[in-house]
Amino acid sequence: MKRGGLIVAVVVVVVLLGLVGQGCGAYNRLVTSRETVEQRWSQVDNQLQRRNDLITNLVETVRGVANQELAVFGEIANARAQMAGARTPEQQVEAGRAMDSALGRLLVVVENYPQLRSSDLFRQLMDELAGTENRLATERMRYNQQVQDYNIMVQRFPTNVYAGVLNFKQATYYQIPEGARAVPRVDFSGVGEKK
Questions:
Q1: Rounded Cα–Cα distance for residues 23 and 28 (Å)
Q2: Contact call for residues 109 and 69 (beta carbons, < 8 A)
Q3: CB 3.0 to 4.6 Å from 99: which of 68, 79, 92, 139, for a disulfide?
Q4: Would the pLDDT of 37 be above 90?
Q5: CA distance 52 to 48
Q6: Are 43 and 141 in contact (CB under 8 A)?
Q7: 175, 137 contact by CB (below 8 A)
């Protein structure tokens, strides 16, 4: 009887050690993945900040020529204020979307001012902005890939059990705004006409 009790105790201890080991491993993988998501987000945040700084200079350049476009300048100012006040990645994603929308409207305004497009300063700012948009797209892609890996870990069994107990929440994707999915309209009707 004593020998049977000892065997049961050893089996229980081995099972408990296995569960603790599996729990520690799952916890470490969750922490590593969550930290990687945050590191990827910081790269996105750096590019968003760089874009914000460039847009300030771009707006001042456009304002010098197109001063009557007050609504667009107001939207950009609101989007910048929203970005400055954003504290969480979710708020920053929303602010980034607002800036995407406002920037798109600014570029439509620029189309009406050919003298602005021929300005060296404007072209330099647009080149820097295009480079920043490319870097932002790359960092956004890397961030979303890491969020996908992390969210799968949080939802997949058995790590979902540990994630629930240890309060690991799903991360938010940084998706492009719906307006950016629309196919741009290209109009060459005025090309070749004398002015």
A1: 9
A2: yes
A3: 79
A4: yes
A5: 6
A6: no
A7: no
Q: How many Cα atoms sit within 13 Å of 168 on the Cβ side?
A: 25
- As given in the structure block, the two tokens for residue 140 are 């956004």
What residues have CB less than 8 Å from 114, skipping those under 6 apart? none
Q: What is the mean pLDDT of residues 39-65?
A: 84
The percentage of residues in the chain with a pLDDT greater than 70, rounded to a whole number, is 88
Q: What are phi and psi of 171, to 5 degrees?
A: -90, 160
pTM: 0.70
Rounded CA separation 7/33 (Å):
39
pLDDT tens digits, 173-193? 887 766 555 544 544 454 344
CA distance 70 to 190: 27
- Structure tokens, 117: 């497009």
Q: Kindly give, in sequence order, each residue whose CB lies less than 8 Å from that of residue 160, ignoring residues fewer than 6 positions away.
A: 154
CA–CA distance from 67 to each of 36, 52, 88, 139, 140 (Å)?
A: 44, 20, 34, 34, 33
